[in-house]
Amino acid sequence: MKNVLFIYGSLREQSSSKALTLALADRLGDQCIVTIAQIGDLPHFNSDIERNGAVTTFVDQIAAADGIVIVTPEYNYSVPGPLKNAIDWASRPALNSVFKGKPVFVISVSAGALGGVRAQAHLKYILNGMLAQVYPAPEIVVAHSIAAVEDGIFANVATLDFAAENLSGFFDVLDAREAAPE
Questions:
Q1: Is the dihedral of CA 104, 169, 73, 160 positive or negative?
Q2: Other residues' Cβ atoms within 10 Å of the Cβ of residue 155
Q3: DSSP codes of every residue in 20-68
Q4: Which residue range forms the structural domain that includes residue 162?
Q5: pLDDT tens-place string over residues 42-98
C-alpha cells in the first residue's frame, strides 16, 4: 500500500486547510497509508544550525512517502510562512533534496473568492525549483473555505468528491512508479 504524506500549511487549530486535510485523509485512508506532518514543531530555518529532531522527523517523513499532498492556505497572496519554513528545511542540499523527484499534489484554500490560487501558483513554482514532480491536474482551489467547515469538520461534499477524484489519478501515478523496475 502506498504511503502518502499530507502537509497542511496553517498552524491554526480550526483552520480550513487542516479540516480539509483531515477529511481527505479520512476519506482516502483505505487507499493508502496516511501520515500527517506537524510543521508547527519546526524551528525557524537557519542554515547555520544543525537539524533538530523535529526537522529530521519531517525530512524522514518526506523521504518515506511515495507521494505528498500539500493543502495550503493563502496568506497575503502567497504561501504561509510556516509552510515555506518547512519546505526550506527539506530543500537542502539544493537540487538534491528529499523533494527531488517526489510526486506532489497541491490543493489551496482561502476565505476569499479566489480559493488560494495565487498561493497554489507560488507553491508550485517553489516545488518545481526543488525538482519535485508536481502532479498536473485541474487545480483544486477552495474558495470561501471557512464556510465549508462545520464544527471543525470540512463538510463540502462536492469539493471532497472533486479532490478525491483527482487524487485517484495521482494515486495511479504512485502505483505505476511503485510497479516500475528500478
A1: negative
A2: 14
A3: HHHHHHHHHTTTSEEEE--GGGSPPP-TTS---HHHHHHHHHHHH-SEE
A4: 3-179
A5: 999 998 887 789 999 999 999 999 999 999 999 999 999 999 999 999 999 989 999
Q: 10 Å Cβ neighbour count for 47? A: 8
* CA pair distance 43, 98, nearest whole angstrom: 18
Rounded CA gap, 94 and 28, in Å?
32
Cβ atoms of 91 and 99 within 8 Å: the answer is: yes
Q: How many domains does the chain have?
A: 1
Model confidence over 97-150: pLDDT tens digits?
Answer: 999 999 999 999 999 999 999 999 999 999 999 999 999 999 999 999 999 999
CATH of the domain at 124: 3.40.50.360
Strand-pairing partners, residue 105, are 69
Cell of 58: 519531517
